[in-house]
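User: Structure please.
Assistant: Input sequence and predicted structure:
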Amino acid sequence: MTSTSAVTAGFTWAKLVPELLVSDIKQSLRFWHDICGFSVAFDRLYEGFVYWDLGGAQVMLEKRGRNRNWVTAPLEPPLGRGVNFEIVVPALAPILQSPPVQKGLCI
């Protein structure tokens, strides 16, 4: 995946976009792109930042530990407690049948 410096023409920004800190940006790239089918709308890979889009569902990921983090308390595993995201995808079966999901490595 190559770095995208500009947003594609005609791109529509969602009115609310969650930004998530991730510990492993490469693993996150594989999950959001390869498994879920999101495409990169904008990124700054040199900063560990990617803005994803899938049919108007959008999410931002930033590698934790970078200088722009907005951490307000210690980050202790398991991360993501108390949050739920519902995202419409073209097909659920390919995601559920992917090797990482089958091995319990994500979702």
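The domain at 14-66+89-107 is CATH 3.10.180.10 (2,3-Dihydroxybiphenyl 1,2-Dioxygenase; domain 1).
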